[in-house]
Amino acid sequence: MSTRTDTGFTHIDPDLYAKAFQLLDPEPTREPAAPAPTPVFVMPPVHRAGAVEKTLTDALAFLDTHGWAKHRLIHPEGARCSIGALRAAAGARNDAYRDAGNLLLDEARRQHGKGWESIPSWNDSHSGAQVRSVWEAAIRRAHHMNI
Prior knowledge:
By secondary structure, this protein is mainly alpha-helical. It contains 6 helices and no strands. The N and C termini lie far apart (114 Å).
């Protein structure tokens, strides 16, 4: 018996079959990847200076602008002592003025001893750098106390 091996079919590229089957049965569609979540930036709360902190800060800015003086409330050229700067910043002898003065005197006593009875006596007995150090510390305390 003789077996015929020639079928008469034209040879076809096997990759063609793979492409045809892929068209008939494509891979399952994948859902597009979800976009990465947009980071949410939370702004830290804005610090609002309390009346005492504002009075102290404004008074120190007044001293920086107009100058600091000893032995007088207001120097003829515009400089002021610490109590004069507090009065200029507060605008009136109100609660913020009194509380800022008390905090400033308390800080002066912390740094320079408990013997100071008033801001003018402390102011007149110290250097500009020492006075400024007390002002800055009093402002920091008012800030931390949120007053």
